[in-house]
Design a protein that fits this description.
By secondary structure, this protein is an alpha+beta fold. It has helices spanning 56-62, 83-93, 106-114, 118-127, 135-144, 146-162, and strands at residues 7-12, 17-22, 46-50, 70-71, 75-79, 96-101. β4 and β5 form a beta hairpin. α3 (106-114) packs antiparallel against α4 (118-127).
Length: 164
Amino acid sequence: MSAKPQCFTFFCQSCQEEHVQPRPDTMAPATILPKSCGNDYPAWPSAVVAIDGSRYMAALAAVTGVRKTFFDGDTILLPETETATITMLCEQFGGSVVYGQAQEYEFATKASKAGVPMKLLKLGQAVFVSTGENADEMVRAALEQPSATLLAWEALYRASIFLQ
């Protein structure tokens, strides 16, 4: 398997369009995330399935419609809960799978499920590794004290820009 891709491209079921999402561990803190329908983060936990290049496009066609599916030209990233799809990719396309991926999106996954507003979700995801809190603590703060949390995360985000 190749090195981690800089970005994932994915097809969004909500807006029926493709989006490109930079991986948070490869982007500078000042990177502005694209405005999209809000389904622009991989699920945690996810599985990465590597597919031979000669079969890759057919495999992509086979996963059309599967939620939270990202691809980079070598691999396909999809939620671990999509067991039938993962099995199909391995059996029909000779894919090899690595489970337990996308931990860097733990906050986004939990915040989305909890109903955290999109502005806080995106900002929280951008500062997730810098807060010193775990994803559950961040979600709780975003839901219980959204204004104070927004101010704190904005300050943390700005400080990270100036450290560059």
